[in-house]
Every structure is written in C-alpha cells, then in structure tokens.
Design goal:
heterodimer, A: alpha/beta, Rossmann fold, 6-stranded parallel β-sheet, 8 strands, 17% strand, B: alpha/beta, 7 helices, 39% helix
Chain lengths: 193, 176
C-alpha cells in the first residue's frame, strides 16, 4: 500500500499547470500546493468530487483537470463512470485513492473492500485507459504515461488508511479557504466572468 | 419533426422552453429523462449550442452542474421530482453550499391542479423544496413561460438554485 502524502509528492513533480481537485487527498495536497489552481473543497457532499471535477473538465476543455477521488466516494456514485465515458473529456485525469475503508468515520470497511477491481469497472464503463497500483514504484513508473496521454483515464491506487476517530468538531481544520472562495479564486485566475 | 410548429396556449411547448434556455445562455443540460420533460429531447439534441449530459442517477447531476458552473458554463439540471428528492445531499453540498446559480427544471409527476393528488411524488415535492429553502415556479403552459425567465434571473441574482416545476406531460409537438 502507498502512503498518500508520498504519492502526492511524486505527482506534484508532474503536475504542470493542471487544475487539481484534491478530494480525499486534500489535507496532504494543501501542504504541497494551495494556489488558485488548487481546489481543496473538503467534503461538500460525499460522492460528488468526481461529478464536480468532470463538470469542470467539460467547462475548461483546454485545461488538464486532475482529481483525487476515493473508493468510498466512487462506490456511492458509480454511475458517474458511464456518464464520463460517454462524454469522453480528454482533459480529465481520474485518480482514486483506495484505502478500503471509511477512514473519516473510524475505519469501517467499504462494501467488499478488498476484492473490488475498480480499474476493471472503469474499463467496463467505457474509460479507454485504466490502471491499478499497489506500490509507489509502479505508480511512479506509469505516471508519465498516464498524464502524457489523453483522458479520460482512471488510476486506482491502494493507499494506507489514515483513520480518524476524533469527533468531527475536534479535528484540526486543514482548509485555508472556503469552498466558495476556492471557486472564486479559480475563476479570477482563469479570468472567467 | 414538422418545422412549422407553433406554440400552444393550452400546453407547454418544447420550443418555448428551448427558447428560454437559449435566451439565458444554457450551455449544458444535465439530465435524466422523465415523462414531463421528454418532449424536449429531440429539440435539445438538435440544438448545437447545448451539450446533453445524461446521468444514471439524479444526485450526480448536482455535482456535475456545480463543476460546470465553477468553470464558467451555464448548466441546467433537468430531472423528475422523484430524482430531485433522491438528490438532497448533493443539492445541499454542491449547489446550495457552493452558491451555484443553477436552474433545476423538475418534472412534477403526479401534479393535479383540479383533482386530489394521490401520487406522493407530487405531495412531497413542494415540501422538499421548502425544506431546502429553494424557491420554485410552476409552469404548466406557454403562458407561464415568463416564470422560466424569472427563475433564471433569480438564480443569478441570488447565487442559488431555483426550481421550475413542470406541471404538464408529453403531448407531442403542436403543428399548424
């Protein structure tokens, strides 16, 4: 299993000028980058990161959109894969962090946690390219190919669970901007009226 | 399709709705078909300025629309009231919470102006919207088209979703 922070450090070297919807990797990504092209949204509503990033990809076809989704989110909205595959946004790079559990609620396993082949589901839904990684080394070697080709592309990465048992109200707040501000900053940066 | 169609004063014609979409610059219709709005499909499909984005479950439409709006596009969500209720948390988080001015065009299944409403989908629709403090406008025929205009303007002004409840089922195009 991969350490999420290490994986994101590796990705950062290849990021270029991509817009990053950091999703479940947000609390680590914010330590690496928190510019107007970064979208640390926290968790507006579970299951929706993928739809949001996909919508952004359709709206901004000339910008690379990178999403760090999670398996818990994706299980909640699996049908989005068919919609994405139909629209074929060639600027959409869909990474999915699979820790096999609901880490923010205490680490309970997601349904069939250890036996789901998400890359196969993505391919079956119609994604033209999909990958699966258990170790950082394999991910590191494949990353240039993943980001160098056209989207939509899907990459499932097994990551170590970072289980939180603290009451939500007692957890450290890691976001520096509100969700509305994050969107406003992006629009200002890209000069979107 | 007959290209000499004209607006009906008895029904809500697809041309009227499409004209409102174009007037307000809708770029994407994120939708799941229903019996109240299926009359729009052929026209939307033929309209080059609109991209149709089909979803298999209505809640997905909310986050997609949020991303489109964040990127400067003008999405319209087109779903049935049953799907609206399924979408509650996504609507809360991705549209209301992020202050997205998205119009929700909602087929009002079960709506009966003069009869007893027995379909719980219709019974709970307005209560659902009220619970989320989302304003809504009932549109039943072409004479109500100005309410669509109001909904688009209100969404933009208040940076909130606004709903249009479509209280008319498919009846085909009205030819001269």
């Amino acid at each position: 299993m991969v350490n999420t922070a290490d994986m994101l450090k590796l990705f950062a070297k290849h990021r270029g000028d991509a817009i990053v919807v950091s999703g479940r990797g947000g609390k680590h990504w914010i330590n690496l980058s928190d510019t107007a092209l970064d979208m640390p949204l926290g968790d507006p509503a579970m299951g929706g990161h993928c739809g949001f990033a996909f919508g952004l990809a359709m709206a901004l076809p000339h910008r690379k959109i990178v999403l760090f989704d999670s398996e818990g989110d994706l299980q909640m909205s699996l049908g989005i894969l068919m919609t994405i595959a139909e629209q074929k946004p060639d600027n959409f790079y869909h990474f999915m962090l699979d820790n096999e559990c609901y880490a923010t609620t205490g680490g309970q396993p997601v349904p069939n946690a250890k036996n789901v082949r998400y890359d196969q589901i993505a391919l079956g839904a119609g994604y033209p390219r999909a990958f699966a990684f258990n170790e950082l080394d394999g991910f590191s070697k494949a990353l240039p190919e993943i980001l160098g080709g056209k989207g939509p592309v899907f990459a499932a990465i097994k990551v170590k669970p970072e289980v939180e048992n603290e009451a939500i109200g007692n957890r450290k707040k890691w976001r520096t901007r509100s969700q509305v501000q994050v969107v406003a900053d992006l629009r200002k940066e890209l000069q979107i009226a | 399709m007959n290209d000499t169609v004209t607006a009906s004063t008895q029904h809500l014609s697809p041309e009227t709705v499409l004209a409102q979409m174009k007037k307000h610059g809708v770029t994407h219709v994120v939708w799941l078909p229903d019996s109240e709005t299926n009359w729009l499909y052929l026209l939307m499909q033929a309209e080059p300025s609109i991209t149709l984005v089909a979803v298999p479950r209505e809640g997905l439409a909310m986050s997609i629309a949020s991303g489109l709006a964040a990127g400067g596009k003008k999405p319209l969500v087109l779903i049935q009231n049953t799907g609206l209720m399924e979408s509650g948390d996504s609507l809360r988080g991705w549209l209301l919470g992020m202050e997205m001015p998205v119009v929700l065009m909602v087929g009002l299944r079960g709506w009966t102006r003069h009869g007893v409403t027995t379909d719980t989908a219709a019974v709970y629709t307005e209560r659902f919207l009220n619970a989320f403090n989302i304003n809504y406008y009932l549109v039943e025929n072409d004479a109500d088209a100005s309410r669509i205009d109001v909904a688009f303007k209100e969404a933009e002004k208040n940076k909130r979703p606004v709903a249009i409840l479509v209280g008319d089922e498919y009846h085909g195009f009205v030819s001269k």
